């Protein structure tokens, strides 16, 4: 019995590219001391600035704005913008500039938005791919030319573009939905936060209030009325790490802020954060940042005090 060949007429399905990024211009992650000021500029490509920690004052066209943690502002092509930190805040900032002519970018004109947890993950992917893609320092605010790594991993450039595109589309999609909800009639009953979200926020708030102490898993469970396995599972799911590792990261992040914001000695900062000795503090700091506290202070100081040349 012979084989009967059936020829199907398959139709190709064209796919829409809502946002198509043509070129990456710069990608930066800044950790600044207080009182930093960048005089401002205009250029013919898009740029956004997102606050990872603290707050920052910016100019966007004719508007003076203050951005807080998780807020993101977009600068359309040829819009004047500048950055200035306050005497009381040493912010961590993510700044990305890129060329894109897609009409969907009109949504972001004159916008200041707030990113959610999923968008934070996408934005962290952008930074991770950028570090693997470029040999240039990403913490130099005056860098205007990115240099590729000679040993970059296969597909890193494409992954970078995909991560940035996914971030922008997700932000646009979610924000558009929320704007539509605001215009819709209010439901009779409001929905409550997921119980695990409430629990996670409660524990994070508890940890933030005890940065000046040492912490154990047993104490966290006792003070927050939660089981050991439950808290471990919760933090693995929410942060990808254990709760003690998360707490230690919070302490080091706060130490970095203190180094940038104050003139306190490292021994004082160590005591303020409940470390038994400045030596142990230094070892923990290097473990989480890859540098000693003095190396970090010098790098931030050098960046903050660069002569303004733009």
CATH fourth-tier homologous superfamily of the largest domain:
Regulatory protein AraC
Count the beta strands. Answer: 9
What are the secondary-structure elements, in order, as H or E?
A: EEEEEEEEEHHHHHHHHH
- Can you tell me the CATH topology of the largest domain? Jelly Rolls
Residue share in β-strands? 15-25%
The level of helicity is: 40-55%
Question: How is this structure best described in words?
Answer:
With 310 residues, the protein is an alpha+beta fold. It has 2 domains: 21-176, Regulatory protein AraC (Jelly Rolls); 195-304, Arc Repressor Mutant, subunit A, CATH 1.10.10.60. The protein contains 9 helices and 9 strands. The protein has helices spanning 117-133, 156-183, 195-208, 217-224, 228-239, 243-261, 266-272, 278-289, 293-304; strands at 21-31, 37-41, 46-53, 55-60, 63-68, 71-75, 81-84, 92-100, 112-114. Strands 1-8-3-6-9 form a 5-stranded antiparallel sheet, with helices on one face. α6 crosses α8 (278-289). The protein is globular, with a radius of gyration of 23 Å.
Structural topology:
Layout: E1 21-31, E2 37-41, E3 46-53, E4 55-60, E5 63-68, E6 71-75, E7 81-84, E8 92-100, E9 112-114, H1 117-133, H2 156-183, H3 195-208, H4 217-224, H5 228-239, H6 243-261, H7 266-272, H8 278-289, H9 293-304
Antiparallel strand pairs: 1-8, 2-7, 3-6, 3-8, 4-5, 4-7, 6-9
Helix pairs in contact: 1-2, 6-8
């Amino acid at each position: 019995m012979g084989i009967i060949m059936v020829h199907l007429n398959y139709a190709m399905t064209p796919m829409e590219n809502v946002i198509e990024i043509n070129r990456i211009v710069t990608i930066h992650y800044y950790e600044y001391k207080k009182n930093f000021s960048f005089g401002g500029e205009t250029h013919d490509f898009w740029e956004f600035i997102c606050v990872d920690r603290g707050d920052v004052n910016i100019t966007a066209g004719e508007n003076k704005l203050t951005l807080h943690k998780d807020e993101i502002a977009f600068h359309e092509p040829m819009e004047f913008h500048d950055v200035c930190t306050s005497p009381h805040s040493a912010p961590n900032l993510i700044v990305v500039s890129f060329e894109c002519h897609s009409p969907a970018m009109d949504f972001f004109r004159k916008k200041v938005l707030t990113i959610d947890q999923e968008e934070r993950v996408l934005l962290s992917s952008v930074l991770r791919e950028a570090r693997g893609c470029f040999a240039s320092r990403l913490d130099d605010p005056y860098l205007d030319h990115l240099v590729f790594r000679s040993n970059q991993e296969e597909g890193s450039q494409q992954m970078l573009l995909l991560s940035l595109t996914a971030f922008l589309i997700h932000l646009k999609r979610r924000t558009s939905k929320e704007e539509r909800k605001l215009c819709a009639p209010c439901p009779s009953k409001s929905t409550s936060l997921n119980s695990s979200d409430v629990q996670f926020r409660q524990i994070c708030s508890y940890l933030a209030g005890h940065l000046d102490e040492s912490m154990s898993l047993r104490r966290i469970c006792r003070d927050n009325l939660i089981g050991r396995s439950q808290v471990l599972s919760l933090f693995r799911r929410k942060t990808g790490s254990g709760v003690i590792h998360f707490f230690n990261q919070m302490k080091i992040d706060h130490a970095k802020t203190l180094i940038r914001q104050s003139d306190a000695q490292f021994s004082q900062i160590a005591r303020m954060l409940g470390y038994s000795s400045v030596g142990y503090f230094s070892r923990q700091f290097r473990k989480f940042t890859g540098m000693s506290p003095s190396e970090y202070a010098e790098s931030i100081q050098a960046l903050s005090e660069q002569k303004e040349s733009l």
